[in-house]
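protien #1 (seq + structre)
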Amino acid sequence: EPGEFTKRAFLNGRIDLSQAEAVIDLIRAKTDLSLKTATNMLLGGLSKKIRKLRSSIAQILAEVEASIDFPDEELDFMPPDEMIERLKAIAEEIKKLIETAKEGRILREGVRAVIAGKPNVGKSSLLNRLLSEERAIVTDIPGTTRDSIEEYINIGGIPVKIIDTAGIRLTADPVELEGVKRSRRMIEMADLVLAMFDSSQKLTEEDFELLKLISDKPALIVMNKIDLPSQISSEDLAKLSSRRIVRISALKEIGVDELKAEIVKLITGGKVISSDSSVTINLRHKDALRRALESLSYAMDSIDRGEPPELVAVDLHGALNCLGEIVGAVTNEEILDRIFSQFCIGK
């Protein structure tokens, strides 16, 4: 049965549910960085944070329930303002964990790096150079690539999904037009963009349209065909924004190593992922954390409005249960079956 031994370890209390999921990440790790992160998760990196958060909420809940059980006793209960401040601090810690969801997805699935540009600037040639193999068809005919091509590579210990897209231009060809639409969608979904330009040709409206599309994206400007005389003026270069410009010749294999180094810098420099990805979450964790955050928000609102403590207690219990789902303190068979079905037999 898939996941039989890991599930048995979870049911016997040797590991919690987040650690069991880390076993899957460990098996599927594509690079040293994702392996390191999965190992830290297996050793309880996330578990410790969740236990600390649950303990903090439980302390506040104990105060609230004491005020319910002993309303007439002259006990020194926590003041409402202090209770709200403590809950705010817990909420901030949860928000920080939620922010690691993108990094978790990147370490599991790879950085989505989209090669974008108008037709015939050398996008497919660059893909082939990055892969060190002839994966994409390269011709002098603009519009050869009409659909995206995706391949994984390992750059500096980071899994990168390189996506070669159709050239972005105005076209009446319905098939090519669909490819252009997909390219735009790929740019929207990208973690970073390699915006390619042909240095042997003057910049066109299509080039400036690309700059608009990547305005809010981490990106590198890749100036291709530097083996040919440049036709781009210094004024036009200034218009290419303040982003890092990497000059290459995909045909002559000039500057490709420098481009790889710049990709790593962009990824690890905080633009795509942080330098410390020791604890990351998956989509299941993210959903539970969001619901916990919502329950805490309701609890703080109730305290602020002077609502009965019974209402506050309900929301604090809700937050505790949501966090409990992450480590398996609160769960059901459907969730367990879904998680352990991802394992191969014998794990």
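ok now protien #2
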Amino acid sequence: KDLSQWTQIVATGLAPQQRSLHSSVIIGHRMYIFGGWVPLISSDKNEQHTNEKEWKCTNTL
């Protein structure tokens, strides 16, 4: 029995643009979003600290 459920968080900061064909991963309390199509191919990386609930754009990991 699957007990998973989606929860919408309230975050601050500049959120990444809506996109498709991206990759994302959660490591610890951080969510990383790589690339995607916005409608141009984008190579930006966005990092969300899930404890802080604030979007931050970074050029380094």
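The two ends are 37 Å apart (CA to CA).
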